[in-house]
């Protein structure tokens, strides 16, 4: 948060995941982060997460915001600098 890469990070603990890794079915408990940021910050945020994440290939995906509460979207604009 101190890097101002996101307006908000929601932490969802103890998410159970099933996935294939190196040909084997794996099951693990993970922590899911929902990060609310600007599209222009995704690259920098992704680089930062990869630099600190213990997984070889962490899950980092981006979903566009089609609609939302205008007041919340304005708050996000105000709290994540463009640069």
Short description:
This protein is 25% helix and 33% strand. The protein has two helices and two strands; from the N terminus they run E-E-H-H.
Could you describe the 3D structure shown?
The protein has helices at 42-52, 70-79; strands spanning 8-21, 24-36. The protein is an alpha+beta fold and 83 residues long. Strands 1-2 form a two-stranded antiparallel sheet. It starts with 7 loop residues before the first strand and ends with a helix.
What does the secondary structure layout of this molecule look like, with pairings?
Elements: E1 8-21, E2 24-36, H1 42-52, H2 70-79
Antiparallel strand pairs: 1-2
Keywords:
copper ion binding; alpha+beta; N-reg_PII/ATP_PRibTrfase_C; N-reg_PII-like_a/b; 83 residues; Ion_tolerance_CutA; CutA divalent cation tolerance homolog; two-stranded antiparallel sheet
